[in-house]
Amino acid sequence: MKSRKIIVTTVLSALVCFGILPGGQAEGPAAPDTALAGGNTADGQLALAGLTSGIYNSAFGIYALLSNGTANFNTGVGGVTLLSNTGTQNTAVGAAALLSNTTAGSNTAVGTFAMFVNSTGADNTAVGDEALEFNVSAFTNAAVGTFALQNNDSSGNGTATFNTAVGGFALRANVDGTSNTAVGAGAIESGDGGNDNTAVGFLAGNDITGNSNTCLGQLAGSNLTSGEGNIYIGAQVQAGAAGEFEFIRIGNDTAFTFPYDTYIAGIFGRANDPGTATTCFVDANGKVASVFSSRRYKHDIKPMDNASEAILALKPVSFHYNSDAKNTPCFGLIAEEVAAVNPDLVIRDKTGEPMTVRYDQINAMLLNEFLKEHKKVEELQVTVAQQQKGMEVLTAQLKEQAAQIQKVSAQLEVKKTAPQVVANKP
Fold this sequence. Notes:
Blueprint: H1 4-18, E1 30-36, E2 40-44, E3 58-60, E4 75-77, E5 91-93, E6 108-110, E7 125-127, E8 142-144, E9 164-166, E10 181-183, E11 198-200, E12 214-216, E13 231-233, E14 248-250, E15 281-282, E16 288-289, E17 317-319, E18 330-332, H2 335-341, E19 346-348, E20 354-357, H3 359-417
Parallel strand pairs: 2-3, 3-4, 4-5, 5-6, 6-7, 7-8, 8-9, 9-10, 10-11, 11-12, 12-13, 13-14
Antiparallel strand pairs: 1-2, 15-16, 17-18, 19-20
């Protein structure tokens, strides 16, 4: 594409040489502050020279609104502003602003070369030098800042609609992307073609070409390219990979001297669905998630057996946290002592020092030990039951023997006490 200066010079030379005016004849320059019929005003060489029946148009500058004809409610302030315009309700302020606009209406361009190439795109707003400069036919875009949305619709496809750019170079490279919002110098500056993205902050989402991403903060998501559905909140919050999908990243602990503390309202003291509620965990990378228990997420599954016996060497303690001004009594374990028993039962900080205990794993080991002891109790109960049954049989036998002994004793007693009869002899 020719440079803007070359294009403007070529256009002006052609106008001077060939007199492109109604009837093919050039007219003299409009007098300063010339009030024309129909509420029109012109000030500048050939400003509004092509006016026919149009009303309430204002042209200030050489060749401003030159081809206006029947169009109404247009304002051109600056050399060759709205030069080719025949549309209505356009406002151009700045040399060559809306220079190529033809039939499109309701455009506002403020700044040198603002909406320079636009011809049929309507309802656009461009404020800043070269803002929306190469837009051809796309509509309903808003650009505020030097070079904002500069290349929007430079393809001429007309699909780059509903974009908003506020800040120098914001959305500068977008060509066919739609419904993007960039606020801040360099926000989505280099990204080309993505849709439904929102970036707020200096260089936020700078290289985005994917869709439906949200970047809030200085340099937030600036290394993201083709990823989609991501949310980055905080200064210098970066994507884990240039093409990651559907990640939420809030805050960057490495961006500042001190790490963040996180406070989120609306959680403590609030109810949730007990049937679906799960325990939430956070890893060393700051990822918050649940721990899965389904078999489909696991491998090398085998009984715990004696591995849980390590917890028998642990020493529960009572203590107070140094950070607790209220000195609340607490109960638990000391990570260093647990690490000495089983290193796999502690979580270490980024320097490798023991930080906390994997209490969820200890709970599982406690369950294993409980089940082992429970099995012993069950086996003992079976033995006791068998012994009880044997004792019952033995008791019955003893009772029977006692009854027999009593019977024999009774018989003997009867024989012992029976009277002796002596027969008398004659």
